[in-house]
Here is the input.
Amino acid sequence: MMRQLATLLAIVVLAVAPMLIGDRYLSHIAVMVCLMGIMAFSMNLMLKVGQLSLAQVVFMSTGAYGSALMTMAWGLPPVLAIVLAGIASGILALVLGPLLLHIRGVYFVLLTFALAQVVNLILQDWVGVTGGNSGLFNIPRMELFGIRLARPEALYPFALFLFALAFLATYLLDRSRAGWVMHSIEENEDLSRALGVDVMRWRVWTFGLSGLMAGIAGGVYAHFIGFLSPAAFTFAISVNILVINVIGGIRSPFGPVVGAILLVPLPEILRDAQQYQLLAYGALLILFMAFFRTGITGFLFGTGAESAKGLPALRKLARAK
Here is the structure.
C-alpha cells in the first residue's frame, strides 16, 4: 500500500509540473502522455478479458474524424462533438464486438490488425469526406465555457482531467465485482463460464467501453493538433499502447500511467536518432518479457506474484457465489 501511495504521489508531482513550469513544448508532450495514456487504458480493458485488440486505433480515428467533421460541417461545439464521437466509437465497437469476439487468441489479433488496415485505407480513399492523404485542415480548436484552449498549456488541464477520469474508472472497475469477472475470463475462460459468467456479453461490453475511451482520446487529439490524416492512425499507435501496457504492467491500473509517462516522451528523447526508436521499443519489450513480465508496477506492487499463486480472481468470484 505504501508503494502505491508513493507511486501516486510521484505521478501527481509529475502531473502538476507542466502547469507550474508553463513551458509550451513540455505541455505538448504532457498532453500527448494523457491521450496515449487513455488509449493504453482502452487496450488494457481488453487485455483484462484475455483479448489483445489492435482495433483501438480504429475507434480513435472514428472519434477524431467524427468530432472534426461534426464541428466543421455542423458547427457543434468541440466538447459536444468529442462526447458524441466517443459515443459513436463505443456503439461501433458494440456492433463489431459480436462479429469479432467469437475469434480468440492470435486470430483475433490478426483480425483486428486487418480491420485497422481496412479502415486506414478507407480514410485514404474517401477523399470527399476525410480529405484522403491530404487530410482535414483547420479543425476548430478546443473551447470550454467560452475559453479557447488552443495552446498546449491551456489544453493540458482538460486532457489531464480526462486521463485522471480514465484512471479512476479503471481503478474502481478493477476493485469491483465486475473487475473480478473480467480478470476471471482472462485467467481461465472455461472455469469462468462454469461459474455462470456470460463470457461473450462481458467481452462485448468491455469492447464497447474501450471503444468509447479510444474515441474520446481521438476527438481531443483532433482538436489539439488541428489537422488529421490517415498517417496519424497507423499500426504504430497499436504498438505504442501495447508497449506502454507491457512496460507499465497490465494487471495494475497504475500500469498504463507509468508506461505512458516513460514511453510517450521517448520519441522526443530519440529525436536525433529516430531510426533507433523501434529498435529501442523492441529491446525494451524483450527485456521486460524476459525479466519483468508483470511490468514495472508488477515489480513494485507484487501484483504478478498474486497472480502466480493461481487464479485469484476466479477464487474471489467463486467465494462470492
Observations:
- The first strand starts at residue 143 and ends at 144.
- The mean pLDDT is 88.
